[in-house]
Write a structure and sequence with these properties.
Helix content is 39%, strand content 22%. The chain is an alpha/beta fold and 632 residues long. Helix 12 packs across helix 13 and helix 12 packs across helix 14.
Length: 632
């Protein structure tokens, strides 16, 4: 198909050339409903013209809040049709976070999924001076609302059809005004070190990265993708919306966040992109099911899991696979690997990617050993989500792949990875100084990641440059390396390690409440809540054994010497992690300062009064006493 300059132009092209082919599916009450490309274009047209009737135009901002439903994707494209900018926000954000992003972006109209999201916006309405209209998609529970700025999605579409009748040709004319360098999306960063920044991405930014991805991967018009990742994450737009518009693939929206894994198994997508936390969750569930299986099944699974590991190690080293081992692998595919792929919903997947954060090598090799073509992709919001990816025959847990053709990567003297290419953003909204700081004089984007290019040209990410340090004796210290090792355990959800400038490495561990809870139930160990469970002597011993296992595979200087179990999980609402589950290390170091002092002051326990934040922004304090253990 001919190349177009903007995303709406691709939508119109698909509606002409693939009118009856599926563009989107959504599951509701257990039934998948399909929308063709003709339906898709009609829905977008009606809503775009409804927005025009409400006064929305070029360079206006449209806030988007909710989970993955067709209406919100149509709303994004509708805004782009009029030359506006969609601003998706995280649906689980607390009121304070929403207020900052929607106020800073100057959102004129907000489209909310349901009553819950409407209530959030109403609660902060006085903090949004630019807001004129609030549109809701689902009418359930909305009958008693009388705010004069509220409208339903259907109502806006009806007004759009009336506007169309009175303004023939307006829609096509507005799309025709669009240019490749128009801002198509304002995507806010996760804000690991401060307030989020509004990243302005143009149509060319998004489409160029979409084209590069499609040129490097086996992407087909009849592909199915599950659109389940937060719409505020750039990856959902690039690898979902943009790829769908580029090649005509079908986006599938799950029934809800709680049904994602079930809908994944039912759909069986042809390709999938998921952050490490999703893959780690899948592996934890498999390990739990294995622990509950009969002794014979556990023995069979363990045997073929070992076979898979040995085969994958030989492949990685470029060595021949002995005939007996290859035969065992084929038997394993019939008895174990195939059924596991089917259970995970990956029976049709030709490729699978992980990105957004580092993945532990054991997790990576497990899935590849079971016949899942898992590879790593590297990108970030400011470069439209794509820098490098791994070819099928060069997948490795140690790199993030080869820089894609058309994208330049260089390593600065301070080991920072810097990027130049068509995906580099147009700037931070209303933050010219921050934009200038992010770019070099030669037009290279400073990623803030420390890395290197290996002998094969693959990019290796070490850690965030600002997080790389050294122990007191000068031994290099990269916290993510230690944390990933521990997070391979199904009993551990999050880890924060300390060591920069200190004589040894220590760690705070947050247990996986569901997994450890099931373990406790199997041991007839009673508990009341997270705090109670995490401080049980039996649970402390369980995690101590996991730490011991990790220490066995580390040099003495890199081993964890002291650790404790947190009395609560790390939470984005408490500013400890971002919505994409990245650690806010500076905030954590300040909040848990007494813990760090206790680690290096040879204390046996520490008391803290921890602030817990609720959705409405209110806070409560919980007093906790945590035991510090010396690791074996």
């Amino acid at each position: 198909m001919a190349e177009q300059a903007t995303l709406p132009e691709y939508m119109l092209q698909n509606a002409r050339t693939m009118a009856d082919q599926p563009a989107m599916r959504a599951k509701d009450l257990g039934i998948w409903k399909t929308y063709s490309w003709s339906d898709y274009a009609d829905q977008v047209r009606a809503f775009a013209l409804g927005l025009a009737a409400l006064g929305f135009g070029r360079e206006d901002k449209l806030g988007i809040i909710g989970s993955n439903i067709p209406n919100l994707y149509w709303a994004q494209v509708a805004a782009q049709c009029l030359g506006g900018m969609p601003v998706p926000v995280y649906q689980d954000s607390i009121a304070k976070e929403l207020a900052f992003v929607l106020r800073h972006s100057e959102a004129k109209i907000i489209v909310a999924q349901d009553q819950e999201q409407v209530d959030k916006i109403i609660s902060i309405k006085d903090e949004l001076p630019n807001l004129k209209w609030l549109i809701y998609c689902w009418p359930r529970g909305m009958n008693d609302y009388d705010e004069d700025y509220l409208k339903s999605f259907d109502e806006v579409q009806a007004a759009g059809r009336d506007f169309d009748s009175a303004n023939s040709g307006y829609f096509d004319a507005e799309i025709g005004k669009g240019k490749a360098d128009d801002v198509a999306l304002m995507c806010y960063t996760s804000g690991t070190t401060g307030d989020p920044k509004g990243v302005m991405l143009t149509h060319e930014n998004l489409l160029s990265c979409g084209r590069i991805f499609a040129a490097n991967e086996d992407v087909r018009p009849d592909d199915d993708y599950l659109s389940y990742l937060p719409m505020a994450w750039v990856g959902d737009t690039v690898y979902g919306l943009v790829i769908s518009l580029l090649v005509g693939a079908t986006n599938n929206c799950p029934e809800g966040p709680s049904t994602v894994m079930r809908d994944l198994r039912e759909l069986g997508p042809t390709g999938i992109i998921a952050p490490p936390a999703v893959w780690e969750g899948m592996l934890s569930n498999l390990q739990l099911k294995g622990a509950d299986a009969t002794p014979l099944k556990r023995m069979v699974f363990a045997y073929f899991n070992d076979v898979a590991k040995r085969i994958e190690e030989l492949k990685f080293d470029g060595k021949a696979i002995p005939g007996g081992l290859a035969l065992a692998g084929k038997i394993g595919d019939f008895m174990v690997y195939g059924p596991v792929r089917d259970q995970l919903g990956l029976r049709r997947a030709r490729w699978a990617y992980t990105g957004g954060a580092p993945m532990g090598p054991d997790t990576f090799r497990f899935f590849r050993g079971f016949g899942i073509n898992l590879k790593q992709v590297y990108g970030m919001t400011e470069v439209a989500g794509l820098v490098s990816l791994q070819p099928d025959d060069q997948a490795s847990p140690d790199t993030v792949g080869l820089p894609c053709a058309g994208i330049e990567v260089r390593i600065a003297e301070n080991s920072e990875v810097q990027i130049k290419g068509p995906g580099v953003f147009a700037g931070y909204f209303q933050q010219e100084e921050k934009t200038a700081e992010a770019m070099t004089d030669g037009g290279w984007f400073r990623t803030g990641d420390a890395g290197l290019l290996d002998e094969r040209g693959h990019l290796v990410i070490i850690d965030r440059a600002k997080d790389v340090g050294a122990l007191g004796d000068g031994t290099p210290y990269a916290p993510q390396f230690i944390e990933l090792k521990l997070k391979f355990s199904p009993y551990i959800n999050e880890v924060v390690s300390f060591g920069d400038g200190h004589p040894f490495i220590s760690a705070m561990v947050a247990i996986d409440f569901e997994t450890v809870g099931k373990w406790a139930e199997s041991k007839a160990l009673p508990y009341t809540n997270y705090m109670d469970l995490s401080q049980k002597p039996e649970v402390l011993a369980l995690i101590a054994e996991e730490v011991r296992k990790v220490n066995q595979g580390l040099p003495a200087v890199s081993q964890i010497k002291r650790f404790l179990l947190l009395s609560k999980d790390l939470d984005a609402d408490d500013n400890e992690i971002t919505r994409t589950r990245k650690l806010r290390r500076g905030f954590i170091a300040e909040k848990y300062g007494p813990v760090i002092e206790a680690f290096y002051g040879d204390q046996k326990e520490v008391e803290l009064s921890l602030a817990v934040t609720f959705e409405d922004g209110s806070e409560a304090h919980v007093d906790a006493r945590m035991t510090i253990l010396d690791a074996a």
